[in-house]
Amino acid sequence: MNNEYINNLGSERSVEVIFIEQLLKKYYKSGNIVLDIGGIPTTNQHLESFNKFVNDSNIDYRISDFRGGTYTGDFVEYDFKDQKFDIAIFLSSLEHFPQCTESDITYREGYDKQGYEKALSILNENGIIILTVPYGKHRWQEYHQNYNWNGILNLTEGSTILEHYTYRLHVDNTWKIEDPHNMEDIIYSDKAYGVGCFILQKNK
Fold first, then answer.
1. Tens digits of per-residue pLDDT, 12-36?
2. Which residues have a Cβ under 8 Å from the Cβ of 71 and sit 6 or more positions away?
3. What H or E segment, with its residue span, contains residue 124?
């Protein structure tokens, strides 16, 4: 990952899309099954290059989303039976688990943590989670959760952080890498001004 990215997509996707492609290339092994949780994006054109990479690489790439995909329904409640996965991806989806206005407006306390625990439960041994979230001051706000370092550690219990990259959006319209402990002033307002990108491995 670079230290700086132009905000060419007008949001944290400018960092996230590059992150998931680069890190999937790094951690994916032939024969792996990848599960994208919440993988039907609001703006499809943001993922055009990534989708092309997945298709060109013949990756077994499956989607779990209440709007459709291979496994349609509430991810936390979904019965995957004996199916196991090698890599799970949360591309700015887990922060919406407590309340997603595209499905209903019910607030579910701790549903993001339950979603993460569910992902761990369906991963094979040493499975990988690719996670991106709004990052800064830790707090809940309608539709979006914002995480800080302690919030991430609490959320991802049962796994170990292998790599992490945190970026701040600057006034010159670039995302610049920043120490994750120096971002407590960032609040998700009209958009995300901080983003955290994490690679985690399921604990034995």
1. 999 999 999 999 999 999 999 999 9
2. 35, 62, 63, 64, 65, 78, 80
3. strand 123-134
Contact 91, 132 (CB under 8 A): yes
Alpha-helical runs (H) found in 100-197: 111-121, 149-155
Characterize 47-81 residue by residue with b for buried, 16 or more Cβ atoms within 10 angstroms of its Cβ, and e for exposed.
Answer: beebeebbeeeebebbbbbbeebebeebbeeeeee
Contact 88, 129 (CB under 8 A): yes
Tokens of 81: 């039976």
Task: Say if residue 161's pLDDT is above 70.
Answer: yes
In this structure, is the dihedral angle defined by the CA atoms of residues 27, 31, 32 and 36, taken in order, positive or negative?
Answer: positive
pLDDT above 80 (res 182)? yes
The two three-digit tokens of residue 79, written as one number: 């019965």
Residue-level pLDDT at 68:
83
Sheet bearing 60-65, strands edge to edge: 4-6, 174-177, 159-169, 194-202, 123-134, 85-91, 33-37, 60-65, 71-72
pLDDT digits (tens, 9 = 90+) for 70-105: 998 888 889 999 999 999 999 988 887 766 655 566
For residues 176 and 204, what is the distance between their CA atoms, to the nearest angstrom? 34
> What is d(CA 137, CA 92) in angstroms, rounded to the nearest whole number?
16
Tell me what pLDDT residue 41 has. 61
